[in-house]
Specification:
The protein is α+β, with helices and mostly antiparallel strands. It has five helices and 14 strands. Helices cover about 30% and strands about 20% of the residues.
């Protein structure tokens, strides 16, 4: 049986926008804390504090808890270099100059969830691979925005997946390198829970999949590598790394689709700057 997609009223999308704004502020606080010598737990704590001070709670902390298993142990996923996603923050994991650091975080505000991720360099990019790593981060962020720009009321889910895939191919040609687009991990529906139907693949075909009815909310999140896309999970049962040791980038925003267009719920400006190059003007839910 196919799980139904949860549809929200405009007022509920506005409540999700409030959660998204809080998360945007929290991630900004985390990015401000990133520096050589800072631990990944320091960044976690900065984001946790911002979420709490804004009246929210973490939807990552204890995610997946079951019985004696406490679930995920932190407020953010802190993934460094060859770690693609779900890295666990640690007080003993110190960031160093040149690290590529992906921060994935979420929050709940008044029962509504938000989810977002960014990839940043710690200080200056690794000097030996600076150009390719800068290009990797840019290609991943571009793929996210291209995917978001393809989301339209009553469009198809496959339009988003195909747009992401085509953006990665475009960046590979433009940059003269073949990026690995990670499969098996991708976006998802979001609303009264963090992970809901539908699954949003980062590869697909236009015109396929369920219709994006007004009231749909999605998290869109491409993950790219500088090598092959194959991954494995470490012994901690959470951290996903590239099999070949290549560095990885991860970008994510949550979006809401209304009758009159879309809003990027977790972008401070609702997505205006990110969508402008693709000829899309977001609607306001503020």
């Amino acid at each position: 049986m196919v799980e139904a997609i949860q549809l929200k009223t405009r007022g509920e999308l506005q409540a999700m926008r409030a959660a998204g704004r809080l998360l945007a502020d929290a991630i900004a606080a985390g990015r401000a804390a990133v520096a050589p010598g800072v631990s990944t737990m320091d960044v976690n704590d900065a984001i946790a504090t911002a979420i709490a001070e804004g009246g929210g709670t973490s939807n990552f902390l204890h995610y997946g808890a079951h019985g004696a298993d406490p679930g995920f142990p932190a407020t953010i996923c802190a993934s460094v270099n060859d770690e693609v996603v779900h890295g666990i923050p640690s007080a003993t994991r110190t960031l160093v100059e040149g690290d590529l650091f992906s921060i994935d975080a979420g929050c709940i505000l008044d029962g509504w969830h938000a989810d977002s991720a960014v990839s940043v360099h710690v200080g200056a990019p690794d000097s030996e691979h600076a150009a390719e790593e800068v290009d990797l981060v840019a290609a991943c962020e571009r793929a996210m925005w291209v995917g978001i720009s393809a989301a339209r009321p009553n469009g198809r889910l496959g339009d988003i997946s195909a747009a992401i895939e085509q953006s990665v191919a475009w960046s590979s040609r433009a940059d003269g390198r073949r990026y690995g687009s990670v499969a098996g991990y991708g976006g998802h529906g979001i609303g009264t829970a963090m992970h809901m139907a539908p699954y949003v693949a980062n590869q697909g075909r236009r015109g396929k999949g369920p219709r994006l009815a007004p009231g749909t909310a999605l998290a869109i999140e491409p993950m790219l590598t500088l090598g092959r896309p194959a991954t494995r999970v470490l012994a901690d049962k959470w951290t996903v790394v590239t099999k070949d040791g290549a560095r990885a980038a991860h970008w994510e925003h949550s979006i809401g689709i209304g009758e009159d267009g879309l809003c990027v719920l977790t972008a401070p400006d609702g997505g205006a700057a990110g969508l402008r190059p693709f000829g899309v003007t977001p609607v306001s839910l503020d």
